[in-house]
Amino acid sequence: MLNLQQVLPFVSQIATTAGEYLIQHLGKIKEVNFKGERNLVTEIDTASEQIIKHRLKEQFPEIAILGEELGGETAELFWVVDPLDGTNNYFHSYPVFCVSIALVSTNLPLLGVIYDPTRKELFTGLKGEGAFLNGKRIQVSTVDNLKTSLVATGFYYEFKNQKDTNIEHFVDFLYEVQGIRRSGSAAIDLAYVACGRLDGFWELGLQPWDTAAGFLIVEEAGGKVTKFDGSSFDIFYPQIVASNGKIHSAMLNVLNRRKF
């Protein structure tokens, strides 16, 4: 039986090490491959994932790993790894990217770590133990009116192939909120909901490595995370709505104005 309180510092150190590797190689990309028209992967993504995978396998050889670049497997207990969330930002030396690692049991995260190396911010969460930023407890915002809220979203890489591109939702929210941000990193957006910098976040087309750690950290900070219909969130489901809880129903109302 894992002692998560003891595991968390180890995973935090792995995320920090990988994040510092990203900083060391920022602006030095030599190889780029495209997984789609806009979805790219660099040798830095792969190297960062290898750092993380090696350390996890060395310490926890029995736990499976699911990762963005190398694929992997799921089991009753498994790691979910994003070695570089915000690859397009990183490619352009735009300083919004992070490392995200979660430990998941039967599709529910037990431990989550998000490390933003450009700001040296480490967001962590343990199931039932709260959420923290650089060791200090964090909570979601207290904003209770959509009109005064700051929210964030993102868009599919290959949005031209999607029936619901999220553009219509974006336009609907423009008329309802104080502001919308698009960082290019879902993990950072979720971390910012958790610490109150954002009041809400929604997106479509995400993968488990985009959301697993942030999902847990938001909930442990007192927030709410669901699908667009308000039902319980699943890291393998591509819709996510995260909020401080107080504006959640209002966000769902905006998202469900249009049926696709």
Explain this structure to me?
- It is a single chain.
- The protein is built from seven helices and 15 strands.
- The strands form three sheets. Strands 4-3-5-6-7-8-9-10 form an eight-stranded mixed beta sheet, with helices on both faces.
- It folds into two domains: 134 residues, Fructose-1,6-Bisphosphatase, Chain A, domain 1 (2-Layer Sandwich), CATH 3.30.540; 110 residues, D-Maltodextrin-Binding Protein, domain 2.
- The longest helix is centred in the first third of the chain and has 21 residues.
- Helix 1 packs antiparallel against helix 2 and helix 5 runs parallel beside helix 6.
- With 260 residues, the chain is an alpha+beta fold.
- The model has no long low-confidence stretch (mean pLDDT 91).
- The N and C termini lie far apart (45 Å).
- Helices cover 32% and strands 26% of the residues.
- A hairpin with a 3-residue loop joins strand 3 and strand 4.
